[in-house]
Amino acid sequence: xxxxxxxxxxxxxLLLGGCGDDAAVTFQGYLEGExxxxxxxxxxxxxxxSVAEGQSIAAGAPLFALERARExxxxxxxxxxxxxxxxxxxxxxxxxxxxxxxxLEAQLxxxxxxxxxxxxxLERQRQLAAASAAxxxxxxxxxxxxxxxxxxxxxxxxxxxxxxxxxxxxxxRAAEAAVEAARAALAQAEWRLAQRTxxxxxxxxxxxxxxxxxxxxxxxGTIVSLLPPGSIKVVFFVPEPQRAAVRPGGTLKLSCDGCxxxxxxxxxxxATEAEFTPPVIYSRxxxxxxxxxxxxxLPEGAAGLMPGQPVTLEPAP
Length: 317
Fold this sequence. Notes:
By secondary structure, this protein is an alpha+beta fold. It is about 40% helix and about 25% strand. It has helices spanning about 10-20, 70-95, 100-130, 135-165, 170-195, and strands spanning about 25-35, 35-40, 45-50, 55, 60-65, 195-200, 205-210, 215, 220-225, 230-240, 250-255, 265-270, 290-295, 310-315. The strands form 3 sheets. A 6-stranded antiparallel β-barrel has the order 1-10-13-12-11-14. A 4-stranded antiparallel sheet has the order 2-9-7-4, with no helix packed on it. Helix 2 packs antiparallel against helix 5 (about 170-195). It is rod-shaped, with a radius of gyration of 44 Å. The two termini are about 35 Å apart.
């Protein structure tokens, strides 16, 4: 059995509530808050805090911001890389630039002009070869030049047709993959930038500001402590002789200084091990000093109660 110490001020009240079979059955306890401790998701300098202690805030309200120059620069770089990848993909899909196509078209026109000239020269050499044997050699040269002109024209037509086509499917797919990778990198960079500004996950009361702007915050370091509505529970202690009077799910009457009349609390937990201070011997005379920690939930709408407030509970009729 594990021994834990109770508050020295609380223990005499427990004895008053638990001693004597004829005494009224009452249990002493206090209110305890279940806080939301909002921490920095990553290390960095605390740039600003947007709330103040004691302020009531709505869900989604900004709480604090960490220094974010590095993350903003990463987002700008990722956007530029995405723009570059999109431009390269568009270039692959549209083929050569208009200037390149215009140059090829000019070369084709030049080749066609040279072909016409070669054909005319060939025809003249054929006429001369019929009247003179010496012209037969020049005829062979004209035939060779005409063939070369025809071949150059066909080659230029093929190059122009290729320039007008988009890139091969493999290169297009590679460019598309580069665009998707750039988009993923941009989404990651934007997420990291967004993590530098933290908002409240719920409507709550700002209970405590742990750090001030200008401080270095380690990853996971708490900056703001919040107390959402309905997150206050009752912690009380049941003396060993009255343990059987308290069961989880049961209802107890609750009273405290300044509390409205008619408050009740529902028992949610009862410890299976006793706590004691000082250490005692398990005997009939001293067993009344043993107490069991218990917890209870307050009803919805219970207002004006704050953590640390002492309370008294007793079985409901």
